[in-house]
Specification:
This protein is of the alpha+beta class. It has 2 domains: 2-91, Alpha-Beta Plaits, CATH 3.30.70; 101-205, 2-Layer Sandwich (Alpha-Beta Plaits). 20% of the residues lie in helices and 37% in strands. The protein has 4 helices and 10 strands. The protein has helices at 13-20, 22-30, 124-137, 179-188, and strands spanning 2-8, 44-49, 56-62, 88-91, 101-108, 111-114, 117-120, 140-156, 162-176, 201-205. Strands 2-3-1-4 form a 4-stranded antiparallel β-sheet, with helices on one face. The protein has a 4-stranded antiparallel β-sheet with strand order 8-9-5-10. It has a two-stranded antiparallel sheet with strand order 6-7. The longest helix has 14 residues, at 124-137. The protein is globular and about 45 Å long.
Amino acid sequence: MYLTRLVLNPRSRRAQSESANLYELHRTIMSAFPATLPADERVLFRLEIDRQSGAFVVLVQSQYEPDWGWLATSPPDYLLSISEPNPWVKAFDPLFRVGQQLVFRLRANPTLKREGKRLGLLREEDQIAWLHRKAQAGGFEVLSVRAQKLGFVQGWTRQRQPLSLFAVQYDGLLRVTDPSVFARSLAQGIGSAKGLGFGLLSVARAE
């Protein structure tokens, strides 16, 4: 798999527009990949705001190597000029083991299906219970977690219908219970609305 970090200039009109409409940001990200992708490909991304600079930091995870060459023709102020490579790309092939503990971050849209409709979970206890259910099916268990409500994210469907989805950021510690299932969960993402920047499970070694 590949990880990409894009640091967008908060003063760029295009970056401002895409940060307010994550479906448009998703379309921009997909410009780095072929129009037709293999069935097993899942491009995941998450938008974060750097607290110090206010920059828009976009994390992208894909199974196939992206081509960011098109950024050379984007507006000159789209990417923020920083001392590190931008975009920054890293190939990684993680190996997990039973019992391994990892710190994690997940921005998700926790929902419950009822009478054919997908309803957002607004209570913290329901949001955490949702994550535990996803963990049980996803080859890991949650040891500790903090759920931060980010409010509603506005976007559009492919049919140009408006969407309003509740966003929650989970930060915590997990333990791997089934390495192969966990690796698949990592690659495919957690939960729904992945085209609007939800579902990317970021992990790192626990100190």
